[in-house]
Amino acid sequence: MPQKIAFLASRTPVAQTARAALIGRYGNVEPEEADVIVTLGGDGFMLHTLHATQDLPAPVYGMNRGTIGFLMNTYVETNLRERLAAAEAAVIHPLSMKATHTDGRVSHSLALNEVALLRQGPQAAKLQITVDGRLRMQELVCDGALVATPAGSTAYNYSAHGPILPIGADVLALTAMAAFRPRRWRGALLPKTALVRFDVMEPEKRPVMADADGTSYRDVASVEIRSEPSISHTILFDPGHGLEERLISEQFS
What we know:
Blueprint: E1 5-9, H1 13-26, E2 36-41, H2 43-52, E3 60-64, H3 80-86, E4 88-92, E5 95-101, E6 106-111, E7 114-119, E8 125-131, E9 134-142, E10 144-148, H4 156-159, E11 171-177, E12 187-191, E13 196-201, E14 208-212, E15 215-217, E16 220-227, E17 233-237, H5 243-250
Parallel strand pairs: 1-2, 2-3, 3-17
Antiparallel strand pairs: 4-17, 5-6, 5-16, 7-10, 7-14, 8-9, 8-13, 10-11, 11-12, 13-16, 14-15
């Protein structure tokens, strides 16, 4: 049963109040010393916590003090140590992104949900798509396109009418947003090992930005995306409410 818990909370009053109550009941250590990290907030803060603690061995257990809370468990103050001891673990891997800007700068980032390319101005983006060095789409005219992990497939990807992927699926979802040409193209399922490259056509006239889990990089000329198996994140869920069950349930709601 985990003994040392680090409590992290978003800046919202409800999350800070919950953190104070839990520390008063269970104590608190720094994340580097913890057996488990408990994060209090919404899905955005969970993603922030996972990125911030990716070099630490402790798994992360979230309790919802935000809005949707897809990655979170129900907030209850009592019996926390017992819940942690019984929790189910889900291991996820992020995407790595390499973005080359129009001025030649190169930016790198990691994303647990998705990497998205989005039009930066009033005109639609024109994107060329290459997968593992093979040109797959000469011209996609759209508001944007994204590559999503199974864990992130119910987020931006799903709202763009992309598929929900089982957590254990060795695939990535490539989904278009408001595709104008080809008008009916909704995307593709790709092997998890695929290297996806987007090249921005007419970047001066039709500027595009890349977004990795909410962190934006403006004026990109090309973006390369691939799964990063060398980095693992362990998320804990209450029994019967694990990530795989949530992904299945979401498809019937």
